[in-house]
């Protein structure tokens, strides 16, 4: 197949050109082609299929390094089919799936079941992140790593495995695993508040009468996030300084959904203090674009962990993205049913769908010249592939997987969650508009944003 008359994003620049796709991969890319070069390309095109892109923009498929696809005992919230369909229709061609599932993905047996369930049920490629098995069982850890998981995730607020993540000896054990197996550790950074601190916030809430989203923010405050980030980094530095370690064997740590100035600056400081440290972080579209003063038809649509913060944080983070200082975006797509979200605040779960708003809203910033295209492509596609060693992904390059997204600019329209493919048909981006139109999305050269597509996604495995 040939995609012709396109504007192709490649290595930081836009070129007019054409792409030949054969056997799942980008076979040839030609820029500013003359007629004779196009004819030559057409001769090589075995299926003779050509798509005239009418000067639309071709980008590498988006890689979302943070999502919750649910399925199994939470299929009412989302399934592999519905979640990955939502991704496919949004231009997201690879996703990482988190382990706080039901049952939790903390044993070899469970993870094998999850992977089996995903086979033939995913419209995009999916990589699995595991929880740490109970008691740090060495044999189990080795077996889990051998399944090709992309990393381990820890939740200090809600441990999946009864391991106390406030105990630094457990962090040291975790770093040992990461160092030994070269496996990334994904961290949900939040230092749990004490019961007393929570009671105090409840009292303030009763007296001062602030909004639900402000209350939620105080229950999981900026200082708790920063405290856990600091705590992990201190332990990390202690670990790498504590033994003669080749930098190639340094543990790999990744902070999920950084939501505030404080933890951002703490991570940046560590990163610049020593270039050998393997520390990365992501920011979500909602922490880049929303604050806890948004007005919603239902406050629980904005209930998420980490909470939405005051708008100085989101404005600061968006500006850092604009300046090219934020390497990774992850949606934290975390669907819950509308019924669950319609309960009172204390009962409603945190999280909301994120796949279908992400490219529409962040690329809209690009279309409005508020974000350089290259910073978007770096954070959305190139860096995820490089930082997490995803072979042949993230770039429009010959020999790479033909995972592509073709976008167009159309008259402004309001995003309507009723049209979402996810089961969770609501969003905190109520009444947000965009001019971004996702025209076509390809996974290994097959169009996936069409209703009759086949779930051809593959499980991607970390192989080092
Ligand atoms: O808001 C959230 N929802 N934060 C998390 O860390 C988990 C997620 C979920 O799984 O629902
Ligand atoms: Zn999290
Ligand atoms: Zn999450």
Could you outline the blueprint of secondary structure elements for this entry?
Layout: E1 2-10, E2 13-22, E3 25-31, H1 35-44, E4 50-52, E5 57-60, E6 62-67, H2 80-88, E7 92-97, H3 108-118, E8 125-130, H4 138-146, E9 151-154, H5 168-181, E10 184-187, H6 195-208, H7 212-219, H8 222-241, E11 252-255, H9 261-273, E12 278-281, H10 285-289, H11 311-322, H12 338-341, H13 358-367, H14 373-387, E13 404-414, E14 433-443, E15 446-447, E16 459-460
Parallel strand pairs: 1-4, 1-5, 6-7, 7-8, 8-9, 8-16, 9-10, 10-11, 11-12
Antiparallel strand pairs: 1-2, 2-3, 5-13, 13-14, 14-15
Bound molecules: (4S)-2,6-dioxohexahydropyrimidine-4-carboxylic acid (DOR) and zinc ion (2 copies).
Give a nutshell description of this structure.
This protein is α/β, with parallel strands linked by helices. It is built from 14 helices and 16 strands. Helix 5 crosses helix 8 (222-241) and helix 8 packs parallel to helix 9.
